[in-house]
């Protein structure tokens, strides 16, 4: 086969293409040592070497064209280096000498890992799943750009369950670029402090707001490490807490209806999600069934109305107006005498500073919640979580790609 142009495709210092042949989807390129180049030690780069013998070795390369399997046969001088006193084997720069594959082949496998499960890629390429993961991790370590910590303005912090048995990771996202910039196992104060400790004083001073849940661990770490930043309690977590209080009211009413053998028990049963669902997400049948329940049960009707009203809080553009609304809402809850909602309302008032900071910064964990779906897909493609560092690299890769779209 004419080898014109192949020297460019298979260029490696000290080597030239000797021959190439393709047959039945297999393409083999032979590289010989170029005598114009001196043999040098790959460890210390000394040219004071003695060639013991030269052997032919083979490495797998990435597919191209109609050739699904591509192999490099190359001359590999085995030398003794007088500079460092060791025996070495010279390989082309294309070849990863430990794995006997080319860098291109690992990059090819890494690209496949973005779209397909590791188990499928391993079967197609004929390598173990652990090898595929190792290659992909190495490529990502070397190619992904490091997070820009100098221009952080908004941080979003949350925890994510990644294994059975409540195994969590702490995830930090740049609220402006939507890049995942930190992920480690654990959901404690020291877990998040591990990120904050990486920031220099000037970098910390630039952070204006941190969006997080009201949980004590992250809150304590943030207040300690970033005293100048506004803490914004996340709207979605607050609504989740409200929904939990609402569900407690529903369960109490159901138990009471069963005790009294009241006909409303049949209406309450199975209405959990219907009570919590946004109006625009209900079907006509769901709205009709909910109306029947609220007409039959005054307590749930009162709780549902209060729940719907609280969502207005996040529509205010003036902090003073928002605080007045919150104060009025809490007063209505107290007058309702619904204990689960009253406990919830007292918590809101205690944390009102972080809740009202939403008016100033208008941030939620929405982007981070969306990233949770991406994390789950990455875990499925990787056939589970084998390595938290590898999981972080894969999730960061996806967040960078999403930011470019």
How would you describe the overall organization of this protein?
The chain is α/β, with parallel strands linked by helices and 405 residues long. It folds into three domains: 1-97, no CATH class; 154-234 and 364-404, Nucleotidyltransferase, domain 5 (2-Layer Sandwich); 235-361. The protein contains 17 helices and twelve strands. It has helices at residues 6-9, 103-113, 118-125, 129-143, 189-196, 201-206, 216-225, 235-260, 264-268, 272-276, 284-296, 298-310, 319-336, 339-350, 352-361, 366-381, 388-404; strands at residues 15-23, 26-33, 49-61, 69-81, 87-89, 95-96, 101-102, 154-163, 167-174, 180-185, 209-212, 230-233. Strands 1, 2, 3, 4 and 5 form a five-stranded mixed sheet that branches. It has a five-stranded mixed sheet with strand order 10-9-8-11-12, sandwiched between helices. A two-stranded antiparallel ribbon has the order 6-7. A hairpin with a 4-residue loop joins strand 6 (95-96) and strand 7 (101-102). It is elongated and about 95 Å long. It starts with 5 loop residues before the first helix and ends with a helix. The mean pLDDT is 91.
List keywords for this structure.
405 residues; alpha/beta; Nucleotidyltransferase, domain 5; 17 helices; elongated
β content, as a range? 15-25%
Taking the sheet with the most strands, its summary is: 5 strands, mixed
Name the structural class: alpha/beta
Round the mean pLDDT to the nearest integer and report it: 91
* Residues in helices, as a percent range: 40-55%
């Amino acid at each position: 086969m004419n080898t014109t142009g192949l020297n460019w495709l298979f260029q490696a210092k000290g080597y030239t293409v000797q021959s190439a042949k393709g047959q039945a989807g297999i393409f083999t390129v032979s590289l010989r040592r170029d005598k114009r180049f001196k043999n040098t030690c790959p460890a210390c780069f000394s040219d004071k070497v003695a060639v013991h013998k030269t052997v032919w070795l083979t490495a797998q390369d990435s597919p191209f064209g109609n050739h699904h399997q591509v192999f490099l046969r190359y001359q590999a001088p085995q030398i003794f280096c007088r500079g460092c006193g060791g025996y070495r084997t010279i390989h082309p720069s294309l070849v990863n000498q430990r794995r006997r594959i080319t860098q291109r082949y690992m990059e090819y496998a890494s690209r496949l890992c973005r779209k397909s499960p590791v188990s499928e890629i391993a079967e197609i390429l004929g390598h173990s799943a652990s090898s595929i993961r190792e290659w992909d991790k190495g490529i990502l370590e070397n190619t992904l750009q490091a997070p820009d910590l100098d221009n952080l303005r908004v941080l979003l912090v949350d925890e994510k369950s990644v294994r059975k048995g409540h195994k969590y990771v702490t995830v930090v996202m740049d609220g402006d670029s939507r890049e995942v910039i930190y992920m480690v196992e654990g959901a404690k104060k020291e877990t998040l402090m591990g990120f904050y400790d990486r920031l220099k004083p000037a970098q910390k001073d630039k952070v204006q707001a941190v969006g997080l849940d009201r949980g004590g661990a992250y809150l304590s770490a943030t207040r300690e490490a970033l005293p100048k930043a506004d803490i914004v309690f996340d709207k979605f977590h607050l609504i989740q807490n409200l929904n939990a209080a609402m569900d407690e009211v529903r369960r109490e009413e159901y138990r009471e209806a069963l005790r009294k053998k009241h006909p409303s028990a049949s209406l309450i049963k199975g209405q959990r999600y219907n009570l919590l669902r946004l109006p625009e997400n209900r079907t006509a049948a769901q709205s009709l069934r909910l109306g029947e329940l609220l007409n039959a049960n005054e307590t749930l009707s009162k709780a549902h109305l209060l729940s719907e009203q609280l969502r207005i809080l996040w529509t205010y553009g003036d902090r003073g107006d928002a605080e007045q609304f919150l104060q009025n809402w809490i007063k209505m809850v107290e007058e309702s005498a619904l204990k689960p909602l009253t406990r919830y309302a007292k918590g809101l008032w205690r944390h009102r500073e972080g809740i009202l900071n939403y008016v100033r910064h208008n941030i939620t964990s929405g982007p981070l919640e969306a990233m949770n779906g991406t994390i789950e897909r990455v875990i499925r493609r990787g056939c589970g979580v084998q390595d938290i560092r590898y999981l972080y690299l894969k999730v960061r890769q996806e967040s960078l790609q999403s930011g470019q779209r």
